[in-house]
Design a protein that fits this description.
The structure is a homotetramer of 342-residue chains. With 342 residues, the first copy, chain A, is of the alpha/beta class. The first copy, chain A, has twelve helices and twelve strands. In chain A, strands 5-6-7-8-9-10-11-12 form an eight-stranded parallel beta barrel, surrounded by seven helices. In chain A, strands 1-2 form a two-stranded antiparallel sheet. Chain A has a two-stranded antiparallel ribbon with strand order 3-4.
Amino acid sequence: MQQGATEEQVDRVAHQIEALNFKAHISKGETATVIGVIGPNAIEIKDSLVHLEGVAQIIPITRPFKLSGREWHPDDSTYRVGDVQIGGDSVFVIAGPCAVESREQLMATAHAVKSAGAHFLRGGAFKPRTSPYTFQGMGLHGLKLLEEARADTGLAIITEVMAPHDVEAVAESADILQIGARNMQNYNLLYEVGQVHKPVMLKRGLSATIEEWLLAAEYILSRGNYQVILCERGIRTFETMTRNTLDLNAVPVVRELSHLPVVVDPSHGTGSWRWVEAMACAGVAAGAHGLMVEVHPNPSEAYSDGPQSLKFENFEKLMGSDVEPRKKFIQAHAKNVRNLDI
Amino acid sequence: MQQGATEEQVDRVAHQIEALNFKAHISKGETATVIGVIGPNAIEIKDSLVHLEGVAQIIPITRPFKLSGREWHPDDSTYRVGDVQIGGDSVFVIAGPCAVESREQLMATAHAVKSAGAHFLRGGAFKPRTSPYTFQGMGLHGLKLLEEARADTGLAIITEVMAPHDVEAVAESADILQIGARNMQNYNLLYEVGQVHKPVMLKRGLSATIEEWLLAAEYILSRGNYQVILCERGIRTFETMTRNTLDLNAVPVVRELSHLPVVVDPSHGTGSWRWVEAMACAGVAAGAHGLMVEVHPNPSEAYSDGPQSLKFENFEKLMGSDVEPRKKFIQAHAKNVRNLDI
Amino acid sequence: MQQGATEEQVDRVAHQIEALNFKAHISKGETATVIGVIGPNAIEIKDSLVHLEGVAQIIPITRPFKLSGREWHPDDSTYRVGDVQIGGDSVFVIAGPCAVESREQLMATAHAVKSAGAHFLRGGAFKPRTSPYTFQGMGLHGLKLLEEARADTGLAIITEVMAPHDVEAVAESADILQIGARNMQNYNLLYEVGQVHKPVMLKRGLSATIEEWLLAAEYILSRGNYQVILCERGIRTFETMTRNTLDLNAVPVVRELSHLPVVVDPSHGTGSWRWVEAMACAGVAAGAHGLMVEVHPNPSEAYSDGPQSLKFENFEKLMGSDVEPRKKFIQAHAKNVRNLDI
Amino acid sequence: MQQGATEEQVDRVAHQIEALNFKAHISKGETATVIGVIGPNAIEIKDSLVHLEGVAQIIPITRPFKLSGREWHPDDSTYRVGDVQIGGDSVFVIAGPCAVESREQLMATAHAVKSAGAHFLRGGAFKPRTSPYTFQGMGLHGLKLLEEARADTGLAIITEVMAPHDVEAVAESADILQIGARNMQNYNLLYEVGQVHKPVMLKRGLSATIEEWLLAAEYILSRGNYQVILCERGIRTFETMTRNTLDLNAVPVVRELSHLPVVVDPSHGTGSWRWVEAMACAGVAAGAHGLMVEVHPNPSEAYSDGPQSLKFENFEKLMGSDVEPRKKFIQAHAKNVRNLDI
């Protein structure tokens, strides 16, 4: 739309789009309003729109990701969960165990990561495991324990949902829903969380291209849930010394293409606690809006992902050691990255 | 169990296993009966079993795939669908369009592949698509058309199921259920088809290792559905000239490790109809029990996968041209492969 | 050139091309003569050629591989080494140890593979090894032993050359020179073998795309050695159960794009002797012109590649078991592949 | 050796090792002297050494990289080129064009990167190009221009050497020799630069594992040139939106395993100038000792790698914008990484 287009003009265009059986997606940026036309061969209705008042121009979007792309939403998306801002210039940290294993384990970890400065508590209640013979999570009881930990510490919680029929229950407990890497293209699950009014963190699939990842986000966005967070957690390559190859290239690429916030998970991204701190710092330097780190009271006894979990003291070290210089670095750097990206 | 162990002895061992809260899986081969003990740390109950009558030896299975492995089931699994045998020495062919698009398209294809010699009709009613803005399949109406095509041609049908809540409906229509590559680790879906009494064809994930693939099969088997068929359809690599890299190595490897039948899909495995025939032949030569090939009346107008679909005449050519020598080749070769494998 | 263009006309066009500082490459097929113009921005001299007598049309070649592509050389290339034809419809087999280790080892193997029906003897004298602390080959003495084996058995020999300064010595001994996977983009070495008057077998690099592989061939061809053989030996992927992923897709793709013969190496392609036979058969079925198989008198004591080497008896089995049906299969199949390809 | 072992004792052990036809490699750290025994099955001479005076213990090195590993050389290696330290806590920056194209281009770039704060000038005189039909570099004349640029600006120079027979000439001109990714396993070339008395920067191969990369370094070290610098420049994966996938995981992994300095190349690692700054910062945050960045006066007219080259102003921005906070960040971070690593 033209700068200064009225609400009325915007509405009329949106109506016209819907009268033609397409979906209108209105996005108001600071300087301009963009209306997306969603549907197969949307370009065909161009002639029915171009003469409407307030229309500045009609741009065919060749990128297949529409709602997640910057074309219609040039400014960064930011969400607020409690006091914490997701997206923008600050960096938030999610920490906690891979899986909720017991009340003791979860409470101890929740208090430890809270006092070290984390913003969110993670913990898996439903666990997708490669083998059917390994620990599959505590299920609903795990959700209750997470709620208890939130009540105790004030930390908002994030947990994975694996099946469409669990979305309602998980959405009732969790502050942020997580879609795991294996489910990145589980479209029924994506549609389901697309109808929830809470942020969804979508992990990149093990062999998903950046385009496929943004298209998976598109499934959620297209159902009306615009609070999507992307999470880079490593891709599968030939290298065997690390569990995965953390693809930090994806951070500036995604920030250029999309307005959605990006989180980096150096725990899965490396597979070893010894490399988590270095890659957490690198993730932030690359421009990530947040970090997700696995922390466990006693990694050698963890039911899952022990080798990549930090002990409390190492998490404290990660959070505390170089806060001031890193913060300045991030601020200076964030400015540059932003300037380059747009 | 010892050779010549009685039914009674087998039952007593199975009872003892279950009394200890493990699951017993009895597998009767031609020469020996093997009882699998399934559950975490199963080896711990060794001492409670070793002295029972008829027990020959207790072998800790280090391979994480138990029910799909050859240790407990040394002979090839074979299933029967109508008149067609799946597994063993013969080769069966599944053919049809990527997606059911209309009655005309489906019926024309069904008759064409039937007369060319195919054994099963494929056709997607529910389509997993990378983008939410592309054709998502005809859904239940597609299932009805598939039933109609079966009634018309006598071909049994195979179709994909994407969501746990669709399993019942799909299982009522289809003769074989297909789990797509993107859903290979959708564990709730695997559990659901694990309770169906029809064969399930499990496609290998785009970046799934052979071990993960067999473990995904294990999810289905462990729920009691032993009729699993594996399907190699290409993995994701750096090569861009082909849509995927068909990993035929997987055929002899899986045949060595597992008793489950293996199908090769040269359509997805190459991404171009021009290379389908060569790779179909190669798949059979590598030891595949079956082929799955996409066929469409007019590939250039297909809603999906047109470039990799064969026209009727090319499918006929694939089926007809060298039947006799190929059959002898397969028979001679199948014998060798079998001898080497075991 | 037009059909029926005279030698004189062809020469005049070639002269004109070279007068303009480009290189002319004349290729005479059965039905047409094609003259390639090689050099940067060759298309710019179009206007200086189009009016010459006998010129039918000028086709800009967008494919970056010119000499290896089918555009200028539509018919399959075939070479003759002794009595053996390389390329075309027959299938030739190269067999022998990974490395020449001793006279006894080499002679025993040479006689065994000869009597089983192999056409060429392979054996490494210069060995590229990942670690500097492992066996690096016998060098010149290894070449002498290969010559001796040839004298004894009549088998022509193929061996790897690793360094530009060894090309002369190796070319004096060997009938075919091999460029290993690690050296596929060692351009100085490629230029050197490009000046030799013997066939060169170029193995595909571990992570080389098909395009890069053909461009590496182009380095050899562009120096005047047109006898290049391509060898698919597996690419590097995430799968760890096999040493490499044998990319048989590459066989029909390369046969479509290029006139050069293609060999498949199932030994490196799988990394285990147990899967060599299956993948050898699959390679032939995919359309390979030849096979290269590692054979060793006592694989468990081999200095290198023992796990993937066949014992004599297994090589005999591979060669002998199903010769007649396979031959018919190949002939029937070769016809189809050819028809599809062009 | 025991703490406090005398020079004499060390010499005696070294002599004994060499008397047994192995190679002794003496490494003096701050707190201990370690003597490496190099050769096949070195562990077999254990009994001939264990009783010598001053020997503390004999550790079988299972890691196949000996000279590059931390076992024998626990402290970081540092080299000095002119006034610049390579390795340790400071970060050095190499900048310049992909290829030397002309005197004007090189001199302009040399002065620009010098004034922006770079420590070394890069520029290719010999270029490994995928296609034989593209610009192959200026060769010896390029070397002369690099020498001239050094004389003009005082910047030390680094340039690639591609062929064993060029090593002498390149070593005479350059301050640091570069081995390109394609040549990482060109063993003859590695041996040749192993005899030069100048630092060698070894780029990681496109599909080289970290272990293979360190073993390639081992080839150079084992010939007596201990001044090896590693360079991570991106690996080949399925992702196509970036030219390569910069594997920053490799930085902390290599720093843990090896004492050799590591450089990150975000230009090749991403393939686009737009992502170079973010990944340069991320590389430093991950613990890299240096950066290598492509800079060109006019990227759109570069003969090679234009899309990934920074303009002068963007390079200045990368160097200048956040120097102070980044420096503090690096120092604080470097301390942590070091503490974790050892």
